[in-house]
Amino acid sequence: MEQRTEIIKNIIETILARLNVKGGVEFMETSEGARFLVKTNEGALLIGENGQNILALNHLVKKIAEKTFAEEDKDIKEKLTFSLDVNDYQAKRIDDLKNLARLNAQRVRFFKKEIMLKPMTSFERRVIHSVLTEYPDISTESVGEEPHRKVVIKPYQ
Questions:
Q1: Which end is more exposed in the chain, N or C (fewer Cβ atoms within 10 Å of the end residue's Cβ)?
Q2: Which CATH fold topology does 93-155 show?
Q3: CA quadruple 81, 46, 97, 59: dihedral positive or negative?
Q4: Which of 87, 99, 155 is nearest to 124 (CA)?
C-alpha cells in the first residue's frame, strides 16, 4: 500500500480509537477514485442523522491529511481526492441519488416543467448535477441558502 494511503488509514483508525468505536478500515481503488471503508457495528454513531456525521468525519480526515502532507507538497489539497464511507452508507446513498436524478429527469422531459428537489448537502447536490450532465436536454441549478439549498431540474432552454 502506498505510504500516503497507509497514513490516511492510520488517521482514520486513530479517530475511531479516540471515539471508542471498534471496527476495521479497508482501502480500495474505485472508478470514482480512492475509497476508505470503515466497517463497524457502531455505524449509526459515525453516520449520524441524514449522514451529517460521516460528512464531518470525511472533512476532518481530509484536513488532518492535508496538514500531515503539507510540508512535503504545497499543492496537496488538489491531490488529496478520496472518500470515506461507513458500512457502505455513502455508496448506497450515491446510488439512491443517481436514481432520484434520473427519475426526475424523465419527469421533467415528460411534463416539460421544472422540478425542485428537497434540500440537500453540497455533496448530494454535486451527485445530482454530475449525473444530469448526461442529459443534454436537461439543465440543473442549485438555489437557496445553506442549509436549505435545493437542486432545480428543468428542461434545457
A1: C
A2: Ribosomal Protein S8; Chain: A, domain 1 (3.30.1370)
A3: negative
A4: 99
